[in-house]
Amino acid sequence: MAFIFYEKQIFSSIFADDIIVWDHNSDLTKLENTLNDTLEKIQHFADEHKLAFNTTKSLSCLFTTNRHLFNYQPKIFLKGQLLESTKTPTYLGFTLDTEINCSKHISRLCEKGRKRLQLLKYISGRDWGADAGTLKITYTALIRLILEYGYQIYQVAANTNLKKLERIQFSAARIITGLRHSCPNDIACYEADLQPLSVRREINMAKYVAKLKSFKPYNRSSNLLSNWTNNQRLKKDSPLGLIWKQGLADIEVEPSVPFNLLTPTTVLSNVTFNEDLKVKFIKHEEHPELLRQLARDHQ
Q1: Which of 1, 91, 188, 214 has its CA 20 to 30 A from that of 84?
Q2: Pairing of strands 11-15, 18-22
Q3: Are 96 and 153 in contact (CB under 8 A)?
Q4: Residue 92: how many other CB atoms lie within 10 Å
Q5: Inter-CA distances, 289 with 50, 277, 285, Å
Q6: Which residues have CB under 8 Å from 34's CB, separation 6+?
């Protein structure tokens, strides 16, 4: 499918069955025409390879700082159907927003974190509940990983939004230690042996950048970091801009080869992929045994 995107330099990202296509242009008409033309070619490719896209799960979104276009509905079509427009699309678990401030994503993280705090309260009974060590393990395994999801991007959010995440950890620290709500936040975190999320973001970001730089040209994100140039037009920092401001992009690391990028077909030369299936079917509607038989018939 790559040839479709390279033809007109359309930006794209594909992870498993999640595909996102985007472009930028000050002329909305040209922007819509370019994307519609690309989607038409993608649909033609899908028809040839007996793939089916779900239009009900496909969305369109316009990212702009122009307040006059806040309620604009992009006219993007797939399979002849106008795609639903949304202001908060979600891709790979990260909630985007048209204002580009990560507030919607942080709000959803806080909502999930508060729900799981109820579980922590439930197992922290005074007489029969789990001890502090078990409660801390439960928090780090079930709650903190949610609060830190996508920190590489939302670290540039406003402090008022980032403090919402810290409040979830403060509540968890009081549950772990059994301290009262009147106890200062710093003391509660110290007694629970929990680092502030802001400190963890700095440490984890440094590790993440070092990992990317070690991949050199083998990784797409590594190339993006190495070739990035500051072209800041907004007052707020971008994630990569913050990395450069903190001096993380200047660290030197030894290169490494990501062997996990090798596919099984690299060493299994007898494995082939047959694109010429003569029977069109939908996987979730057919019996697994029938699918196995069809695969054997076309080997």
Answers
A1: 1
A2: antiparallel
A3: no
A4: 11
A5: 19, 17, 12
A6: 8, 10, 23, 25
Is residue 54 within 8 A of residue 17, CB to CB? The reply is: no
DSSP structure string for 268-291 = -TT------------GGGS-HHHH
pLDDT at 109 exceeding the cut of 90: yes
Pairing of strands 94-95, 90-91: antiparallel
Residue with tokens 């037009």: 233
- Cα separation of 209 and 75, whole Å? 38
User: Quick one: CA dihedral 65, 67, 71, 74, positive or negative?
Assistant: negative
Which segment of 108-122, 150-164, 225-239, 253-267 scores lowest on mean pLDDT? Answer: 253-267
Across the chain, mean pLDDT equals 83
Cβ pair 203, 210 in contact under 8 A: no
Sequence-separated (6 or more) residues with CB below 8 Å from residue 210: 251, 253
By C-alpha distance, which of 74, 51, 69, 57 is closest to 20?
A: 57
Question: Which pLDDT value is given to residue 3?
Answer: 47
pTM score, two decimals? Answer: 0.77
pLDDT > 80? residue 218:
no
- Compute how many other C-beta atoms are within 10 angstroms of the C-beta atom of residue 75: 15
